Amino acid sequence: MTDATMSSVTAPPPVPTGRRGPVGSFLVHAALIAASIAMIYPLLWMISASVRPEDEIFASTSLWPSSVDFSSYVRGWFGLDVSFGRFFWNSLVIAVLTVVGNVVACSLAAYAFARLRFAGRNFWFAIMLGTMMIPYHVTLIPQYVLFLDLGWVNTFLPLVVPKFLASDAFFIFLMVQFFRGIPRELDEAAMMDGCGAWRIYWKIMLPLSLPVLATAAIFSFIWTWDDFFGPLIYLNDMNSYTIQLGLRTFVDSSSTSDWGGLFAMSTLSLVPVFFFFLFFQRLLIEGIATTGMKR
């Protein structure tokens, strides 16, 4: 036998590449498109309903209004005793302070757990993880009594101050996993140059941790912006309402509800979240993808 014949006889069979055929690929894409349409339809319907006349909002499930009417936006913005812009400002203040508090306090706590050595570190880390299993409603009454005694009820303080005390264990755990992936040789080299723990945190850990910090910032902003239960418990004055409490005022079980104003203001309330995510989505994906990986 020649060499060519031997190679053709002994050559292993080709390994399947796992690629789908045209029919399989079409079915997969069709299913994904259908699922995407089903998920985005309520959002599109809400936007469509916000520009419909009041008597046509629930008359059809079509996304195309018979006529475009922006009066719902004007009525929703100025129709309440307090301008809806006030609710936007309150939500923005609370969300920004929450982002700052979570990023600063949780990164400091995570740096201590990941890099510093102190007595009972593993024990306190386990306790911190255990707090993630406690439902929020279990601690609600004790927290309310505490804030009531401090005179903080009907202010933003109960919604903001705990964030500066590293109260979100999820973000601490997320940052600990990220910090552990940063080589310790960088810390050792910095110590040889005379850097202390604080300078290592500020000059080395934070600049290398932008993805996970952005992840914590985005989730903090979105969760705080969408929060309804916390403001409902602690805020009583309408001038202190957030967007979610402001939206509730459009629906009245004992009288007429302004559905057009509700859908219009709901549409506007999505704009800050959309742009916040749009600007930081690259860092968000990078932070989630690299958390816990060695670099």
TrEMBL record:
It is a multi-pass membrane protein. The keyword Lipid metabolism does not apply. GO terms for biological process: transmembrane transport. Keywords: Cell membrane, Membrane, Transmembrane, Transmembrane helix, Transport. This is ABC transporter permease subunit. Coiled coil: none annotated. SUPFAM superfamilies: MetI-like. Residues 88-280 form the ABC transmembrane type-1 domain. It comes from Rhizobium meliloti (Ensifer meliloti). Belongs to the binding-protein-dependent transport system permease family. It holds the Pfam family BPD_transp_1. It is found in: Cell membrane. The chain crosses the membrane at residues 26-47, 87-111, 123-147, 159-179, 200-225, 262-285. CDD domains: TM_PBP2. GO terms for cellular component: plasma membrane.
